[in-house]
Design a protein that fits this description.
The protein has 260 residues and is α/β, with parallel strands linked by helices. The chain contains ten helices and nine strands. Strand 3, helix 2 and strand 4 form a beta-alpha-beta unit. Helix 3 crosses helix 4.
């Protein structure tokens, strides 16, 4: 599936990795309505072979946010519906069928940071910078950023970014939680693909639990979290593939954890 703003490639011997490229380099991959709907549609129709996905941006930037040149005047009710369209699309990234790794470089700004925050792992190269300029432009985030970004970096840091226009570089972003990895310039896609390939080797139930259950456990009171954990743990370990992997480990046929 492809169009002028986005392109989907399937990689791996079994086509288990979906690579989703934003392809608006002349617009710094800024997101318009067509692109956000295309992201939603891709995650709604991923082939059954796919076990993990990578999102990347063509050109010098991952995504510079909402395409303000296409921003039309809306009344309050239209604005709510537009924001909810973004919510539905990025919900399919965060709570979709497979884990998603973002390969970040250049601008990860505004709606681009909202997209990145919906992914499960973020790899930034040294050229990456983060900003939320909505506050200085008289608008407010509308793509789920006020929910997702504070969970990564805290409310105070997000408010500072919006109040003051503060920009974080790649290393600062990793330190505060905007990414989990920082790599040399030009290497974020390779690292993201490597991680996606490792994730694809996990059992589907474990990946499902990490995507759909772990974030919800983190939001539950402790007593509810413990019972949810017990239920999901029992379901995961009952899967035939999980039993085979534990047996292989006990028989010395599986690799042991080693110091990095």
């Amino acid at each position: 599936m492809s169009n002028k703003d986005i392109h989907l490639d399937l990689c791996g011997d079994s086509q288990e990795i979906a690579v989703i490229h934003l392809t608006r380099p002349k617009k710094r991959n800024a997101i318009n309505d067509g692109l956000i709907l295309a992201i939603r549609d891709i995650f709604d129709h991923l082939p059954a072979t796919v076990r993990a996905a990578v999102i990347s941006g063509e050109g010098e930037h991952f995504c510079a946010g909402l395409d303000l040149s296409e921003l039309s005047e809306r009344d309050a009710s239209e604005g709510i519906l537009h924001s909810r369209m973004w919510h539905q699309a990025l919900e399919r990234v965060q709570y979709g069928p497979v884990p998603v790794v973002a390969a970040l470089h250049g601008a990860v700004v505004g709606g681009g940071l909202e997209l990145a925050s919906a992914c499960h792992i973020r790899v930034a190269d040294a050229s990456t910078f983060y900003a939320l300029p909505e506050g200085t432009r008289g608008i407010f985030v509308g793509g789920g950023g006020s929910v997702r970004i504070p969970r990564l970096i805290g409310t105070a840091r997000m408010a500072d970014m919006m109040f003051t226009g503060r920009v974080y570089n790649a290393e600062e972003g990793e330190r505060i939680g905007l990414s989990q990895y920082v790599v040399p310039a030009g290497e974020s896609f390779a690292k993201a693909l490597e991680l996606a390939q490792a994730i694809a080797r996990n059992t589907p139930m474990t990946n499902y639990a990490l995507m759909h259950v772990l974030p919800r456990i983190a939001e539950q009171p402790a007593d509810q979290g413990f019972i949810t954990e017990a239920l999901v743990s029992s379901i995961a370990q009952s899967a035939p593939e999980a039993k085979a992997r534990v047996k292989a480990f006990l028989e010395g046929k599986a690799a042991k954890v080693k110091k990095a």
